[in-house]
Amino acid sequence: MTPTASSTTTSTTTWGYFKWAIIVTVVGLALGAWLGWQSSGTLGGMASVFFICAVLAVLEISLSFDNAIVNANKLKDMTPVWQHRFLTWGIIIAVFGMRVVFPLLIVVIAAKINPVEAVVLAAAKPEEYARIMQEAHLPIAAFGGAFLMMVALKFFFDADKDIHWIGFLERPFKYLASIKGIEVAIVLIVMLIFSSMLDDDKAVSFFFSAIYGLVSFLVVEVLGGLLDASQKTMSAAAKGGLGAFLYLEVLDASFSFDGVIGAFALSQNLFVIAIGLGIGAMYVRSMTIMLVEKGTLAEYRYLEHGAFYAILILSVIMFAQTLVHIPEVVTGLGGAVLIGISFWGSVRFNKSNSE
């Protein structure tokens, strides 16, 4: 009788985590099918848009699973109040801001038109809209690559880090962490290497965009520390939340760059892309909260390491995409494989230490 009750509780809790994600999936796919019917007037067109929305959702989940783990690592130190704010306000910023407003702003800036004209362009001339987005890929990839590389290196270059998954790589990083600014130096060297392989105009755009990404990380780190430090005199419910919230939102934005640009390979319709990526973002948020509340990161000790290795590789891929095209499926599967291996390593560790 007891196992059944426990199983029911677990099942109910899991449903609670993914309830809104499932509801958004049903509504989103139905809306996608309606858009397909409106644009084509055929069952085939309706099925095609429905399928694209579903594929985009899966793509977003696969690309952002490491993001969920990193978010969970930050969220576990936040109060329930700020966890809730991240899940509510954060999802509005992630879905509406990054999947709708951000692509529109790129076109507004690149084409020097107003937001209304950008929306009209997205609806009436999706091919032109997609072309402008693709032309903006280089600076976006440079910015996101620099920011994510700093995120990953900050995890590995930590003098207090005492759990190592790939010891022969990670132990030297721990000892080198005492060198001030070593992460910044590494990112700058990588930026110089990639910019040297680009044409002059592209090299300038790449380097300045990457510098902005690097500076953004440093500003968010400093600002986040100041905000959280200023809250030490406040109530317990408000401590340690605002700075971390800001950090997570910028981190989410960096993760979204690649997915938003890559989505145009599957569809040139802004609204279809917003539906598909929005569905995926809901699952990422749900997974983040589940990881925190179930203590999964503590249970699987190498899972976090796998996520940060995936982030490091993703940052290099974003830089490399300024030189050659790398299919999004490679990016998504690469991260998923690394996280899967780290999960398997964690299970093996748990088994060996329980015997």
From TrEMBL:
The keyword Membrane applies. The chain crosses the membrane at residues 17-37, 43-65, 86-111, 136-157, 177-198, 204-224, 261-284, 305-323, 329-347. Keywords: Membrane, Transmembrane, Transmembrane helix. InterPro entries: DUF475 (IPR007427). The keyword Membrane applies. PANTHER family: MEMBRANE BOUND PREDICTED REDOX MODULATOR, SLL1022 PROTEIN. This is DUF475 domain-containing protein.
